[in-house]
Amino acid sequence: MALYVLLGFSAGLPFYMFSTVLQLRLTAHGIELVVIGFFGWVQLLPTFKFLWAPLLDRFDVPGFGRFWGKRRGWIMLSQLGIFTSMAAMAFTAADKSLAVTALFAVLLAFWTTTLEVAADAWRIELAPTQDEQGPIVAANLWGYRTAMVAAGSGALLVADQAGWTQAYLLIATAAFLPFPLLVGMRPEIKGSGGRWVALATGLVASAVILAVAAAVTAAIGSVVLQLAAAAGISSKSNVTPVVLIICMVPFIIMALTLRTIRSAPPTAWFRKSPAIGPYVDIFWRFGYGALAILAFVSLYRMGDVLALNLSKPLVKSIGYTLTQIGTADGLVALLSSMAGVALGGWLTTRWSQSWTLALGAALAAFGNFGFVWLAHQAPSNTVLYIATAADQFGNGFAGAVFVVYLSMLVNPRYPGAQYAFLSGFAFLLARLLAGAVGSMQKAIGYDAFFVMSGVLSLAAILFLPIIGRMKPRAPDHDTI
Fold first, then answer.
1. Alpha carbon 194 to chain centroid distance?
2. 457-470: pLDDT as tens digits
3. R_g (Cα) of the chain, nearest Å
4. Whole-model pTM over 0.90
5. Per the UniProt record, which residue ranges are transmembrane (predicted)?
6. Cβ(243)–Cβ(433) under 8 Å?
7. Who's near 53: CB < 8 A, 6+ residues apart?
């Protein structure tokens, strides 16, 4: 339990730094709201983690893996990536080049996501049943949300007093604190060699991997920016219709291929493939029910994701200072979030999944509606604290029950890859739309936007009578 509090803390610290804190930083530098919305697409990285998740199941990190094991090795590499990316964001905090800001934000999101993939795979291996998952998920989310609150609150308070560079350096240092603790842990296998040789080898290998990742990301980013410019995308573009069309593509592709997957024998190449086999297995087990499951998971957290990308710009536009926002994101958000996570984790061991998921959706919607109320109140610390508490309690509860639900969908043969796919797909549509929130707000205003986000959370409840009765197909003889 203590280990997963630590792992949650390691993953949670960077998240606000490439999402909410970055949005406020860009706002402070006078960047247009539509462009700030485009930065919401950085959060798409966790959605596509299934593309590299099989690598974490298949390969060890040189040096680290030999001594500390596969899972801890990837966690240690990821922490080095998080530290270097955040330090780079600190030294480019003036945002004179938005392309450079985007590069380091993407790298930070990539290494944060890689840490989560390794930790999630280990968690599912350690706790294969729902009763075991509830407490360990609660512990992990306590650490994660404590870190998010610490990053959001601490970074804003420091930024208000000392500047954005110092804020990012402070959080980078805090995020790196678990690394020496992991170095001091016992080896995965006795007689696996010297600790310091493994550490030195791992650091050299990590430096090479980090450099290659940065170069590849820069190259891909350059191509994307050139394509966007050629397509005429700018701060005046309304990208919402295009994004909505893109959101439908994954469901169309899956519907067209499901019949082939469902009837395929265990010897079919795509069922045996180490690259796509773990993902095909999900559709083979659930059949056309997989479409309902994926539609549900895509919708369940959509309201929260959309609200996250405009909540801080809304609060800032009302007249609250960074210090006031940081204070609200401190103790108030922390206690509310931890209470929501604790209640959600506890109820998953006593209630059916359908009831806990329904309550989570209702609480998340209530938190989103709170921002509409906040927008029509005179600026007051009490009003800000109430809205923040409602939002964080709902997010904490919904997050806890949702993680348990996703974990129970996973085939234990492919814990890392399948959880990466399900949790990534769960936020695909939401994060695609998140990049268009600036355009949405411009078209409908803050009130309608937050009402819409709350209604989307409630809409997920409509799927519960269907997915609550679904059972996976029994494995055939070659997949047992």
1. 35
2. 899 999 999 988 88
3. 22
4. no
5. 33-52, 73-94, 100-122, 165-184, 196-229, 241-261, 282-302, 322-343, 355-376, 382-407, 419-438, 444-467
6. yes
7. 117, 121, 416, 417, 420, 421
